[in-house]
Amino acid sequence: MLDDIDRILFHEQTILSRLDALADEITDAYRGEELTVVAVLNGSLIFAADLLRRIPLPLRLDCLRVASYHGGTESTGTVTFHQLNLPDVRGRHVLVLDDILDSGRTLHAICARLRGESPASVRVGVLLRKAKVRAEELDADFVGFEIGDEFVVGYGLDYAERYRNLPFVGVLRREVFEVAGG
Ligand code: 5GP
Ligand code: MG
Questions:
Q1: Which pTM does this prediction carry?
Q2: Which atom of ligand 1 is closest in space to residue 159's alpha carbon?
Q3: What are the pLDDT tens digits along the chain (182 aa)?
Q4: How far does the chain reach from its first CA to its final CA, in angstroms?
Q5: Which among 89, 96, 110, 94 has a CA at the least distance from the CA of 48?
Q6: From the CB of 43, is ligand 1 less than 6 Å away?
Q7: Active-site entry in 20, 102, 149, 158
Q8: What is the CATH number of the domain that holds 118?
Q9: Does residue 102 carry a catalytic annotation?
Q10: Closest C-alpha residue for ligand 1 atom 17
Q11: Deepest of 10, 126, 148, 160, by most Cβ within 10 A of its Cβ?
Q12: Which atom of ligand 1 is nearest the CA belonging to 69?
């Protein structure tokens, strides 16, 4: 598994230090409010677990499963919701957490759906944000790290459902997905 990594972008300790600061930002932003976190599975699982334990506010946690990649390295442009019932967010301050903001399609679709449920507010937090022109006009309110436009795995992010358990974020070697035809 480690042989498939071209280079490491963020080591575990770097990520956790950054999460300390990000959690402080979020805590300041929601102080005195009841927060509802909607974690987008599977990618945000590890990010959300580490981040939320650093936020000393009363909060609710819901999860949402969507798919926009279907195993490749390019977004398909369609976002599929894997559950019929959305979390109950009426009148609540919602923070959507995802692993990475790439084209923006996934988070755009999720935020649109949630806004339809009359929440008090909807904001977005991501571990990673790719520096690029996005297909959808959407930005994140809380960002862990800016990265270039390349395909990364680890710390929750997968390629064909692998590598999520790597403790760091790294760039996958091109041969890995070129051979697989992703
Ligand atoms: P978007 O809809 O913004 O194009 O893509 C968001 C989703 O695509 C993310 O939640 C993530 O699952 C996947 N994604 C986008 N870029 C990458 C990447 O560099 N690596 C991995 N592993 N997944 C990515
Ligand atoms: Mg994914």
A1: 0.93
A2: 22
A3: 899 999 999 999 999 999 999 999 999 999 999 999 999 999 999 999 999 999 999 999 999 998 775 556 666 667 888 776 788 999 999 999 999 999 999 999 999 999 999 999 999 999 999 999 888 888 999 999 999 999 999 999 999 999 999 999 999 999 998 876 55
A4: 17
A5: 96
A6: yes
A7: 102
A8: 3.40.50.2020
A9: yes
A10: 151
A11: 126
A12: 8
What are the E-state strand segments in 85-135? 93-101, 121-130
Structural domains of the chain, count? 1
Q: Which atom of ligand 1 is nearest to the CA of 79?
A: 2
Q: Look at residue 77 and tell me if it is in a domain.
A: yes
Asked if 112 contacts 139 with a C-beta cutoff of 8 angstroms, the reply is: no
Ligand 1 pocket, 155 CB below 6 A? no
Residue at 102: amino acid letter? D
Residues 75 and 69: their CA atoms lie apart, in Å, by 5
CA of 57 to the centre of ligand 2 (A): 28
